[in-house]
Every structure is written in structure tokens, then in C-alpha cells.
Amino acid sequence: MNTAEFLQITSMVVPDRTALVCGDRRVTFMEMADRVNRLANWLQAAGAGPDKPVGAMSVNGIEYVETYYAAAKIGATFVPLNYRAKVEELTYMINTSDVHVLFAGERYLDLVGTLRPTLETVQHYACYDRAVDGMAAYEDILAGASPDEPFFEVDEMQPTVLIYTSGTTSVPKGVALTYLNLSVYVTNTMNPADPSEEPEVTLLSVPIFHVAGVTPIMSSVWGGRTLAILPQFDPKLWLEAVQNERVTHSFVVPTMLKRIMEHEDFARYDLSSLKLITYGAAPMPYEVVSKAVDVFECGLMNAYGQTESTSTMTFLGPEDHQIPKEPGPEREKKLARLRSVGRGMDDVVIAIMDDVNTMLDPGSEGEICVMGPRVMAEYHKQAEATAAAIQDGWLHTGDVGYLDEDGYLFITGRKKDLIIRGGENISPGEIEATLDEHPQIEESAIIGVPDPDWGEGIKAIIVPKAGQKPDTQELVAYTKARLASYKAPTYFAFVDELPRNPMGKVLKTELRKHHGTPANE
Prior knowledge:
Blueprint: H1 5-13, E1 18-22, E2 25-28, H2 29-45, E3 54-57, H3 62-73, E4 78-80, H4 87-96, E5 101-104, H5 109-115, E6 124-127, E7 136-137, H6 138-144, E8 159-165, E9 173-178, H7 179-189, E10 201-204, H8 211-222, E11 226-229, H9 235-245, E12 249-252, H10 254-262, E13 276-280, H11 286-295, E14 299-306, E15 311-316, H12 329-337, E16 343-344, E17 349-353, E18 366-371, E19 378-379, H13 383-389, E20 390-391, E21 394-403, E22 409-414, E23 419-421, E24 424-426, H14 428-435, E25 441-451, E26 455-464, H15 472-480, E27 491-494, H16 508-515
């Protein structure tokens, strides 16, 4: 199934229902379908299509969502770009994915201008907000394009979205999600639009360049829901949107949920329309979810997944968040399970495997692996990484955990040293390589430590050069000047040497044991 059919079907079933809301702008499903057709025809005339992807660099917006559907209609892979990445990373993403047409929001025009001399495949540029020299204006494109429905038969095994995510190396990995991957996810988790039912509203406050931002733009359209779009997350704007648009569903990362609950005017907003808040994408501090259970009257759901698994693999549902008030075994069991990520979705199989890919019994700790129709096609142009991640049909997540006797999954660590801070995947290797170039540092190691605000914080374990005493504030500034700012360490420890095994590999398990607290040492 072509995911663009979600819009085609819903625009016929509930044509006058509001599809997209962003600020004061509102677009119905029929209007959205017309706009998408026009954009798709322009893209096709510009040469976009299979093997000629469409990229976008912008905060969330109506045009951003429409661009995905227009690209899907003509079989062009959509590449949403993380505007927080460094110039070198963005150049790599755009060139490696062979982006043919690149859209940009106004606030990123200077960045695109910096990138243009290094981009090898982009033939057409467009701006979402206004006319710019050398770039087509989005609304002008729509005004001059044909509204006819373009017909293109896609191969559902081909990628519809390419999402770049940081891995355990410094090179971003392009996760290729197919039309089949996303069709299965959406149709298995959302009922189609029904004109007889009261319309629901999904609030999108996660960036579209995350899989947690991509999936709502499809599921909301398929389900006939209004998608209320926040350009970027802000706790006050989130609260206002829920109240004003009567939002029923929203996904947040733990950091966002904490900031929402801590907002000084939290209690003044009418959040009675909320039916479900889903949280995930990073470890949820126990104290945060415990507070959420108390302050929100709606259902809560913990969703665990990866970009490589097309979002959610397991979920801890609303009933699991309903904790009995009376002391007893049932209360203790449910409290304990708040630390889990729930049970597997119906369309995936979860297994715990050892280092030789043998399945382990409940209670045994090993690597979390998943099989199902939503496992990614590949890491784009990275055959070795793909082969390592997908073995005999099983996606090896790199996360470590165990299943209890009832199938609840508990995550205990990561086989790889990936750090997840506020929903952002961070590779320790690139931070270590950067710090090791500092004139006062002999060598460094990066670990993740618990952080109630961000899920995980970044801690640098540093061996200074003889006679040197690096200044931590200067090290933070040094790192931010060379990497995305969120990759700078928050905590530091200074040691005489790093623990190593006989082969010279740094023993990060030992570092976590001795330095795994969110504090400077």
C-alpha cells in the first residue's frame, strides 16, 4: 500500500474535517489533498521520483507534512533532516541519500546557503515561507501546479522515508523505512476515518525528523484525526494547544513530560480533553512517571521502539499505569512494572538472545531482538552495518534487558554505548574523538549517567596530560564549537588512567561502576 493513499481515502470519507492546524492556519482533508496533488505534480516535473529523493529541513509545519505525502505519491523517498546536526553531518546525509529536491524553512536559509557548495545531488531548492533568490516559493509552486491526481504505482518494499540517526559510530545511519513498514504500523495501530465518530485531535510536538514525528503524520491522517502541529516543543505552547484545540492524544519524550508538569501554570490549563499521553524515545525516570500517574487524569502509555523497528515494539498500557491505592502484592507488582516498557505489540515478536543468538528464558538478561514486518529494510548504503543489525530476520537492537514471566520487557542497559539524551541518540565515540584532540587531554571516555531532566546525561572521564588541569567550562565550550551543542558533556571526572582489558579496550562497565553518578569528580 502506498502511504499516500491514507490521505486519498480520508479526504473522500471526511473531506470537510480539519486535517492540519498550525497556529492560526487550518487545512481540511480535501484542501490538503488538493495541495498535495499540486506539489506532487511539481516534484515530478522537477525530476523527483524513485532514486531521486526529496529532502526537508524545517521546524514542524503544515507544508512539511504535505511534502511527505507529495513525495510518497510519486514514489520519491522523503528525507527529513535534523537541523541540529553540524554542517559536515548534514552534507553527508544529503549527499549520501542523493536528495534531488531540498525544501527549507526560513530560519534555515543561512544554513542551506552554507551547505549548497558542498551538495552534489540537489538540483532544485524551495523555501516554505517566502520567495528567495535561487529557491522556489512553496505557495507559488502550488499556485502554478496542476491539481490533477498523479498516478504512480510504488513498490511497497521500497523506502518511503529515510531517517538519519546517530549510531555507535560518528557517521549517521540512514534508516530506510518502506511503504510496507509504515502501512503495517499505521493500519495495525489506528482505525480508518469514520464520519460517524466524534473527531479526535493528535498533538505533534516531536520533530518530524524523528520516527516519533513521522508516524503521527501518517496515523492521524489515516484515522481522520486533526493533527495540531507545534513548530517546536515548548511546555506553555503544549498546554495551550491541548486546551485550545481540545487535544485527545499526544506523544512526548520524558524530558518534555517533566517540563510540562513543572510549568508554573500547569494547574490552570484545562486538559480534560486528553485521552492518552504516550511517552518514550528515552529512559523514563521513575520519579517522573510516578508523578505523571498522580497529576494526569487521562491514560498514560509507555512506548518502546527504535527507528529501525518503525517505532513502537512494546507498550506499557494505561491499565498498567493504574496503581491500586491499597498496599499489597498487586500494588507492588504494578509499581515494579512501571519500570518496564510493557509487552510486545501484536505484529512483532520479542526475544532475548545471548552472544551466539540463542534465545534465553524469562528472567535471563541478554540483547533485545525483534522480528516482524516493521523491521527496517536496511541502513542506507551501509551493508556491513545492516548485516550486523539484521541477522536471520531478527533486528538486534543493541539494548540489553529481560522478559518477566508475563512477557513484560525490562531494559537494563545497552550492548552498544549509545547515549539517549532527551530523545537524541548520541555516539560516545565522536565526543571522545573530539575531546582527545584537546591540547590538555591525554585520552577520554564518555558514559551515560542517570539524569531526571534528560533521561541520560553525558559524563566525560578524562585523563589529563602531565601537569595539565583542564577547565570544565572551557571543555564544554570546546565541544560545542565542534559538535552539536547537546553532545557536550554535563559532568566530568578526572582520573590517572582508564581501565582496560588485556586487548587494550576501555572497560566502560568499570567506568559506570565507579563514575556512573551525575556529579563532577
